Amino acid sequence: MALPRSVARFNRVVTNQVSRHVATILPGFAMVEHRGRRSGKAYRTPVNVFVVDGRYRFALTYGAHSDWVRNVVAAGGCTIVTRRRTVHLTDPRVVTDSTHSWAPAGVRTVLRAISADQYLECSPD
Q1: SS3 of 31, please?
Q2: Number of domains composing the chain
Q3: Looking at residue 15, what is its pLDDT?
Q4: What is the pLDDT of residue 1?
Q5: Terminal CA-CA length for the chain
Q6: What domain range is 61 assigned to?
Q7: Averaged over 103-111, what is the pLDDT?
Q8: Which of 1, 87, 79, 98 is nearest to 35 (CA)?
């Protein structure tokens, strides 16, 4: 089911403004740089990121219909800044996994609690 859109709107206005300052530095976080599908405008969205078997996974706590996810999939990739490194990602695909076995224990608990069963997976370029 993922989190409701009202929470997403609040986070975009409040929480994301705070997390922008640390997302490129802290482990488990990244800033996704992507372009709008129609506008071509550049966007930067703070996200949680995990590396599993050499691929980057993003928990989709708001579901696969979030604008940033749709932008990345439509473009065929994105760039992230994580732990002060820039990584180019390609081959984005949305995966459904209700076990959440790929996620760290604490994250797995939250994902199960909110029924966020999808993640976006990309390969480093």
Answers
A1: strand
A2: 1
A3: 54
A4: 57
A5: 31
A6: 33-124
A7: 94
A8: 79
What integer is the mean pLDDT of 36-51?
A: 95
The pLDDT tens digits for 17-29 are 556 667 899 899 9
Residue 58 lies in a domain: yes
* Residue 80 in domain: yes
In this structure, is residue 22 part of a structural domain?
no
Q: What is the mean pLDDT of residues 61-90?
A: 96
Residue 89 lies in a domain: yes
Q: What is the CATH number of the domain that holds 89?
A: 2.30.110.10
What DSSP assignment string belongs to 63-109?
-TTSHHHHHHHHHTEEEEEETTEEEEEEEEEEEE-TT-TTS-HHHHH
Q: Which two tokens stand for residue 102?
A: 């790929």
State whether residue 119 is helix, strand or coil: strand
DSSP classification of residue 14: I
Would you put residue 123 in left (φ > 0), alpha (ψ -120 to 50) or beta?
beta
